[in-house]
Design a protein that fits this description.
This protein has 2 domains: 2-171, Nucleotidyltransferase, domain 5, CATH 3.30.420.10; 203-235, no CATH class. It is built from 9 helices and 5 strands. It has helices spanning 51-57, 61-64, 70-81, 91-104, 120-127, 135-142, 154-168, 203-219, 225-235, and strands at 2-10, 21-30, 33-42, 85-88, 117-119. Helix 6 packs across helix 7 (154-168). The longest helix has 17 residues, at 203-219. The model is unreliable at 173-189 (pLDDT under 50).
Amino acid sequence: MRQIMLDTETTGLDHRTGDRVIEIGCVELIGRKLTGQRFHVYLNPGRPIDPGAVAIHGLTDEFLADKPVFAVVAQEFCDFIRDAELVIHNAAFDVGFLNNEFSLIGRNPIQELCPSVVDTLRMARDLRPGRKNNLNALCGEFGVDNSGRQLHGALLDAELLAEVYLAMTRGQNSLEMDFDAPPVSMRRGNEVRPPLRVQRASADELVDHQRVLTEIAKESKGKCLWQALEAESSSEPSALQ
């Protein structure tokens, strides 16, 4: 599979109020390996950059004054990403901005170029609920060196995202099943299986168990599944009655 890790930098936070893309960075993976192929461009947005955005990425109006407009690089960009699966952190943001750029020059949206988009922010939230899941946090979680990331940059962030994505999805092939493999027996010969030993919780352990459940119920605002199941089972008539 051909995948493109993609990131953008923009003049501000909302293309609907006139903000524009000022940097695009992409790196290519084929078969989960970086190929060394990349697409990187700075763009002249034709409008001032918000000071808050400059503080994040460091790109200024003066730096971008002599850079091409999006229409000039659009075809090269389309050729690079065409038919690839896009992998983007907070995909809705970048796709919204890129589709706005395409719309301004009369081109079709990015979904007509690429078969699918993977949002690594959504993946990270599923893996790490309730925790910070920005790119810096994920680099720390998965041991990706981001020491050179003093400011946001589309190409650098795309390269870091590639490493984070590979780390987050590592081992997924281990879930594949080989239906042609012969069944494996867990017993040897006529070996008699010994009786199972039942280890019951002590009184102190039961008290600790209830304490933990109470804490979970408090944090989840009463949505502790274990307590709900216990209450349901205690209310059902015994099968022996």
